Amino acid sequence: MTIYDIARKAGVSASTVSRVINGKPGIKASTRQRVQELLERYHYTPDVSARGLVTQASRFIGILIEDIRVEHHTESAYVLEQAMTAQGYTCITFSTGPQPERKAQYIQILEQRRVEGVFMIGSMFGTPEVGRSIAQHLPGIPVVLVNGALDLPNAYNVLVDEQAGTADCVALLAGAGRKAPAYLMDADTPANRSKVCGFRQGLARCGLRADCPVIPAESGTEPGPRSTIARGRSQTAALLARHPEVDSILCATDLLAIGCLQELQARSIAVPQQVAVVGVDNTLYGQLCFPALTTLDNRLAEVSQTAAALLLDVLQGKPAPHRQVLPAAVIVREST
């Protein structure tokens, strides 16, 4: 059943049927009802490709993830895809890898696909290279960063206050009598640098030593979940060699914390009796490991829902804030 068949049965022009399908004004209520009844009766489905040729609208949305193997980010992509598909859009997801130059190249690929909007998941997309590529290739396309930020006129940033959340984690440890916390940093990203600031703020707030150790990110390491766990082990080993007095360890991600737990267990250090451990992300991994991991929930599913609603507002011409910040929440489990 084509639009012309519907028009013939309704006794109207094909353009009138098209206006009904697209919700355009200027059609009598009785005509609109008659056309809609026919559309429903014959289960009419618009030809999206043909509509795109007429309207110059692709109905494509790009989703960029640095590493699709990271479960936390693929969960975000799922939430985004479901929300946009429900509104008639088709999502194209790319795993860019960690190099800023490669991220910039994928933005050019999205331009070639004529996307109408873009999601970028994670603070690692907030780089000068990505910003320049957006300005060059997608200057008029709304770009929403999920827990990331770019200062561009067409960029919209939905973030979680992980800095304040990390300070809350320090307060949790201090309240339990921990006097010598340490911090393990993962990849050097804006979000992870913000967590380090939160760690130092928490130390000051709780009256703890300002020189509590921070183990920096290791450079030149392979990306991926397995290497993150391995980094957690090696960083914990380095920490304990330099600071055997440590009684609690905050980790930039749950996966890093799992590596930390493995190293502590290999050394027969009891968790949490001797050393407490806290992660960030509230992933399934942290719930399944032993002991179950206390973690900072950065509410990525909720952030993703907010990001999807924001992009839909922008695409529909509604006003939308360029920056939204949601609070994080500490989830206490067995590791503290």
Keywords:
336 residues, alpha/beta, six-stranded parallel beta sheet, 16% strand, elongated
Describe this structure in words.
Helix 12 (284-288) links the parallel strand 9 and strand 10 (294-297). This protein is elongated. The strands form two sheets. It has a six-stranded parallel β-sheet with strand order 2-1-3-4-5-11, with helices on both faces. A six-stranded mixed β-sheet has the order 7-6-8-9-10-12, with helices on both faces. It has helices at 3-10, 14-21, 29-41, 48-55, 71-85, 100-112, 128-137, 162-175, 190-206, 225-242, 254-266, 284-288, 300-315, and strands spanning 60-65, 90-95, 117-121, 143-146, 155-161, 181-184, 214-215, 248-251, 276-280, 294-297, 323-327, 329-331. The protein is α/β, with parallel strands linked by helices.
Instruction: Name the average pLDDT.
Output: 92
The gyration radius over C-alpha positions equals 25 Å
- Tally of helical segments: 13
Topology as a string of helices (H) and strands (E) = HHHHEHEHEHEEHEHEHEHEHEHEE
Portion of residues in beta strands equals 15-25%
Shape: elongated
State the separation between the terminal residues, measured CA to CA: 63 Å
Estimate the helix proportion, in percent: 40-55%
- Ranges where pLDDT stays below 50 over 5 or more residues in a row are none
How are strands sequenced across the largest beta sheet?
2-1-3-4-5-11
Q: Which structural class should the secondary elements be placed in?
A: alpha/beta
Q: Kindly state the number of beta strands.
A: 12
Largest sheet: 6 strands, parallel
What would you call the quaternary organization? Answer: single chain
